[in-house]
Amino acid sequence: MPSGRMIKLVVYEGMQFMCLSVPVFVVMERFASLMLHVRGDLTAYWLVVAASIAYVTTISLLLWVPLRYVILKQHRIFTNITQWRPTALAYVVLCTLPCFAILIAGSKVQVDKGPHYRYDLFSELPVSLVIFSLICLDIIERLRPCSLTGKADSVGMELDLSGPVLTHIEQINSVSGRLYSERSQHGVTGNGSATGRWQDHEPANAAYLYSSNHSGLLHFLWSQDMRSEMFAHSFLFWMDVVELVRVTGVPDVFYSDWVFAIYILAFLSCLRVVVTPHSALLPLAGFILQDLPFLVLRLALTSVHGFVTPLLYTMKNIMVCLTFVYFNFMTKLRLFRRESMF
């Protein structure tokens, strides 16, 4: 009987292969239906379907399966790779890139044939499936070292959550405690004597602020598991990309040259999945590959087509860009080094 670890490995690999192949089949089938509508020839439909089957078979046998075998069996080769994920890079290049290229081709074919042949916007199912498969791949890569049973405390791995983690607690004194220690060095206390009890009433440390041990009838309200939080973080990580790609559902945008800029920038933003969640390169990648180009594109779309994209995401891109530049570059200037200012 196979062990639980082997079953989990087979399930993960099967899910990742489905994330690789299913979006390609769905997008290519929609493109085949478009070709059937435009050309009225059933041969074109089956040629596109056959091309999709041949593509998935080829990349699976020549690229995907050998890569997964090397990663799973030859651990020494990938021991020093800690800042990026080869599997995510292969997925983005082999699946996301051709899917976005087919979506752009679908727009171009309908525009070239004229307004009477506008048949499909490729919205909802194809686009959502591509992004959802990318999210699933990201979740599987994060969840792979994690045990699916037992408590999260028993999981000997880093779950790569973006929130701060308290790893060391030191004694934290209040302002009055500091004044007491400074005056004690000069032999003077708050009441004029050499001894005092000011610190007896001060908190010894800040551990109680981070305590997660609660008792009582409502203790279940404080229950949390980092493995479930991982799913929420993964979906929130891609909401900006989802909202940008959703703009192509507007006919005036899809049947124009704006579709090129949207899908190209969306693909560049998808490259962030290659960087490991705990890497220090992720904030810079988010600024260069997502927030800054998305901000420019959204401002341009708003000026031409109106509010086809929510203003909230434009404000989000503005705030992220400004805070990234300020806290990473401007605070290092001599003008902003004065602690007395704020």
Automatic annotation (TrEMBL):
Keyword Transcription carried by entry: no
Keywords, alphabetical: Membrane, Transmembrane, Transmembrane helix
Transmembrane residue ranges: 9-32, 44-67, 88-109, 121-140, 255-274, 307-329
Cited InterPro entries: Uncharacterised_FAM23-like_TM
Keyword Membrane: yes
Xref: PANTHER family: TRANSMEMBRANE PROTEIN 236
Protein name: Transmembrane protein 236
Organism: Umbra pygmaea (Eastern mudminnow)
